[in-house]
Amino acid sequence: MAATPALAADRLNIVASTGMIADLTRTIGGDAVTVRGLMGAGVDPHAYRQTRSDIVAMTRADAVLWHGLYLEAQMEAFFADLARKRPVHAIADTLDPALLLSHEDYAGRYDPHVWMDPDLWVQCAPAVVEALSDLRPAARPQFEANAQAFATEAAALATYSRDALKAVAPDRRILLTAHDAFGYFGAAYGFDVLGIQGISTESEAGLNRIGTLVDLLVDRDLPAVFVETSVSDRNIRALIEGAAARGHDVQIGGALFSDAMGPEGTYEGTWLGMIDHNVTTIARALGADVPAAGRLGRLQGAA
Fold this sequence. Notes:
Oligomer: single chain
Strand content: 15-25%
Structural class: alpha/beta
Largest sheet: 4 strands, parallel
CATH class of the largest domain: Alpha Beta
Number of domains: 2
Strand order of the largest sheet: 2-1-3-4
CATH topology of the largest domain: Rossmann fold
Number of helices: 10
CATH superfamily of the largest domain: Nitrogenase molybdenum iron protein domain
Helix content: 25-40%
Order of helices and strands: EHEHEHEEEHHHEHEHEHEH
Distance between the termini: 29 Å
Number of strands: 10
Shape: globular
Radius of gyration: 20 Å
CATH architecture of the largest domain: 3-Layer(aba) Sandwich
């Protein structure tokens, strides 16, 4: 993807809350931006607290981009105060509410995990274009061109995802994870999605909930459940042990990237790689014959 050449000193200094927002900003901003992401691999944004160095970075930034939709609920008061001094943008808050999933446990709130559906995540790109163009109007054409190139890649990823997940037998299309981060994934690809915890990792998983899910694992003869890289696997292992006590062998199908991407500098450390990994891991664990190396043959650890 071409990007406008820029000297390092001329680049916009952007701070982004999550890895997904940071990746989207780098993709659209290209050489015109330097982006610092606050939350790296394995970091849970539901529980994250800004550090002193984070605060310094944000107060010195040209703009701060955060996700919104109550994902970083514990930081909202700080962002509101910062917005009186610096441009601050809640990127996902710009999405049409008609496209969002509500949740019975959070009245008036929406599921924030919109990056799980490529067709939805790409609709956050215009907000990033606007935020960067406000700071550098002359670069708007390049930001828009980069956003269009990203949309093309996202569409190709969505096509791969549909094809790979369609290969999972209909009676196996149940995704059971640590918390409800995959609702948009399920809506996009026809999966029943079940999380031990709610849409926030701050909620507690009760024994009754775990018992109900063990019953489902046994009754539906499900072969795999999934851990998440940013959430403790304690409750998932309790499920596996409960199923074993009922005589049913269920395996961990793999570790999924839910609220954080992979390590910086890796393919999985980009949004495209994150979703490619998740789709490929889920499809293979549930019986689909898809390439271990994923859409572009770039997944780490693939044979």
